[in-house]
Amino acid sequence: MMVYNLTSTWYVLFGGGSRTSMRIGIASFLLERALDDPSAIIDRLVQFGREVENHSFGGIWVGDAMGRGEPTLDPMLALALLCSVTSRSGLGISVLQAPLRQPVELAHQAQTLDVLSKGRFRLRVGAGSTRSDFALVGADFKRRFETLGVSVDTMRRAWRGEPLNCVVLMPWRSNRTDMTNNSLP
Length: 185
Fold this sequence. Notes:
Elements: E1 2-6, E2 9-13, E3 19-22, E4 25-28, H1 40-54, E5 59-62, H2 75-85, E6 90-93, E7 96-97, H3 103-116, E8 121-122, E9 125-126, H4 131-137, H5 144-159, H6 178-181
Parallel strand pairs: 4-5, 5-6, 6-8, 7-9
Antiparallel strand pairs: 1-2, 2-3
């Protein structure tokens, strides 16, 4: 397989010479080891977002980690900043560890990012794989897959406007229906 660039469209050539168009994104894990001034991370993240968009990459994907011995940015907050400096690139989290977070709050943050990004945000969730992240927030690592299922169900119910604990998280009215249909498996 060979990959090459023609202007802003990326192509991949497979064995028989057939050409398939695909969009390529950039992933960042939001770790910053070398900065003496932590406030400089804002400038670097803004510059990163602008450069990715100027080079016509299809998206910016950030990682999710918190208990791994290095300072990290919260992925939802970092994407909120990137919403303000990009307008075409998709935005998302490679895999957000849903069992580490309260699901209604996560649903609210996701629908907010969907609005701020004008529909460019994509939420991908997983069960998590690093014990130290779970230890940091006091979450049960052994029950992470069960917790993931409950979290996804709760988020979908919130986005549909169903009552949760006798209260409704009001979803934004829009033409988009994929917050309940396609954003989560």
